[in-house]
């Protein structure tokens, strides 16, 4: 790869909602976005999801982890074979466990195996170096969000909000030149987004998620349960901060006695309320919030956000971005940054002590 020149990279994300693998091509020099390219998706089947779910919270060497890694590698190889023209792959893997102040962070999947199978260099293990330097290891998309803010020509502070399994927010001052500059970024996980709601839908209805918020739309948010949820010490904690997928699984106990519809409405309200709590940590009110991730497709969640935030809230499609693929594109972007020796996180995105470029490149 030619240092400092724009190349096509292929990024992937196997997210915390365990639905499947996203892949997307991005042309970048690791600083600016030059072009967006081909995208693809491969869903995990029900058996695959059960295998991954059983491995959640586990660490390398524990039961079921090797099988999960093999599944993740196989799904990626099958999906990525269809792409042409990439010079480098950014492989996030599947987070199984995340405990940055304790045991570390664990993404299943070996990038060296992908490099061998696909015949391309693979950047992977993006989070460990950050954790080793005292960081949260997440979120890592913020440097890419900064590049997106430049790409859309933003000239006043804005926020990207990802509503995946877990939620995360990136506040950006786009008048700064570089993401690592003082005051350019503030990022952290907001709280649970879709993961516990999906778990509720699976338990109560045997469905993977509340499509279009249809069930929540027929229920009421129960204030007592919402208040108990908001008592969690995570919300007032000063960022940087990050979450494991199941950090808030106790939420299901708070809605146990409620009807299916009220439970879904209340859990949707909890995801939205977590974002409202997050806004108090932002250095200034953003001019707009751009929403990415599956939650932007839930009209009930979006309506609750619009009602609770003091600025316009739109899906990222409003500015020409693809909210299904932003995270996969982020790992294409971060792969090129690593190949060019550029940092991928900084004290205001992960709390890391110094600028750090996470990741290993295999098969170079
Ligand atoms: N039409 C829809 N209506 C309601 N919810 C939806 C819809 N489409 C997607 N979702 C929700 O979004 C989730 C998927 O979001 P996404 O793909 O952003 O998550 P992820 O990338 O796995 O998570 P993370 O960003 O935490 O790693 C689904 O599991 C579902 O809960
Ligand atoms: C440890 C881990 O995999 N965290 C994910 C998860 O999913 C959303 C949120 O929690 C975010 O912190 C992160 O992913 C995105 C891609 C990130 O690193 O920016």
TrEMBL record:
GO molecular function: ATP binding; kinase activity; phosphotransferase activity, alcohol group as acceptor
Organism: Thalassovita mangrovi
Enzyme class, UniProt record, top EC level: transferase
Binding-site list for ATP: 15-22
Function: Catalyzes the specific phosphorylation of 1,6-anhydro-N-acetylmuramic acid (anhMurNAc) with the simultaneous cleavage of the 1,6-anhydro ring, generating MurNAc-6-P. Is required for the utilization of anhMurNAc either imported from the medium or derived from its own cell wall murein, and thus plays a role in cell wall recycling.
EC number(s) recorded for this UniProt protein: 2.7.1.170
Keywords, comma-separated and alphabetical: ATP-binding, Carbohydrate metabolism, Kinase, Nucleotide-binding, Transferase
Catalytic reaction(s) noted: 1,6-anhydro-N-acetyl-beta-muramate + ATP + H2O = N-acetyl-D-muramate 6-phosphate + ADP + H(+)
UniProt name for this protein: Anhydro-N-acetylmuramic acid kinase
Recorded metabolic or biological pathway in which this protein acts: Cell wall biogenesis; peptidoglycan recycling; Amino-sugar metabolism; 1,6-anhydro-N-acetylmuramate degradation
A Pfam family hit: AnmK
Single GO biological process annotation from the record: amino sugar metabolic process
Domain of life, per lineage: Bacteria
Family: Belongs to the anhydro-N-acetylmuramic acid kinase family.
Cited InterPro entries: Anhydro_N_Ac-Mur_kinase (IPR005338), ATPase_NBD (IPR043129)
């Amino acid at each position: 790869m030619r240092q400092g020149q724009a190349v096509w990279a292929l990024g992937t994300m196997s997210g915390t909602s365990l639905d499947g693998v996203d892949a997307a091509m991005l042309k970048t020099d690791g600083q600016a976005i030059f072009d967006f390219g081909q995208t693809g998706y491969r869903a995990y089947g029900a058996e695959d999801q059960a295998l991954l779910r059983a491995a959640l919270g586990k660490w390398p060497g524990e039961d079921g982890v090797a099988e999960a890694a093999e599944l993740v590698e196989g799904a990626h190889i099958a999906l990525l074979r269809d792409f042409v023209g990439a010079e480098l792959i950014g492989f996030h893997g599947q987070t199984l466990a995340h405990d940055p102040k304790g045991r570390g962070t664990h993404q299943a999947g070996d990038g060296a195996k992908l490099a061998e199978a696909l015949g391309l260099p693979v950047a992977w293990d993006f989070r460990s170096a950050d954790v080793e330097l005292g960081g949260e290891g997440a979120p890592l998309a913020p440097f890419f969000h900064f590049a997106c803010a430049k790409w859309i020509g933003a000239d006043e502070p804005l926020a990207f909000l990802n509503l995946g399994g877990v939620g995360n927010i990136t506040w950006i001052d786009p008048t700064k030149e570089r993401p690592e500059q003082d005051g350019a970024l503030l990022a952290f996980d907001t709280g649970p987004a879709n993961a516990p709601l999906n778990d509720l839908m699976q338990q109560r209805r045997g469905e993977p998620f509340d499509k279009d918020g249809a069930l929540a739309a027929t229920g009421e948010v129960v204030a007592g349960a919402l208040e108990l949820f908001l008592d969690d010490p995570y919300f007032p904690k000063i960022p940087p901060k990050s979450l494991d997928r199941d950090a808030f699984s106790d939420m299901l106990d708070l809605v146990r006695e409620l009807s299916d519809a009220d439970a879904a409405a209340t859990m949707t309200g909890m995801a939205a309320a977590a974002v409202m709590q997050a806004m108090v940590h932002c250095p200034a009110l953003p001019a707009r919030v751009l929403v990415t991730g599956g939650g932007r497709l839930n009209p009930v969640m979006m309506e609750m956000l619009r009602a609770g935030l003091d600025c316009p809230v739109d899906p990222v499609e409003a500015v020409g971005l693809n909210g299904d693929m932003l995270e996969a594109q982020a790992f294409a972007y971060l792969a090129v940054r690593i190949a060019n020796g550029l940092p991928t996180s900084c004290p205001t995105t992960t709390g890391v002590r110094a600028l750090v470029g996470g990741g290993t490149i295999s098969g170079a």
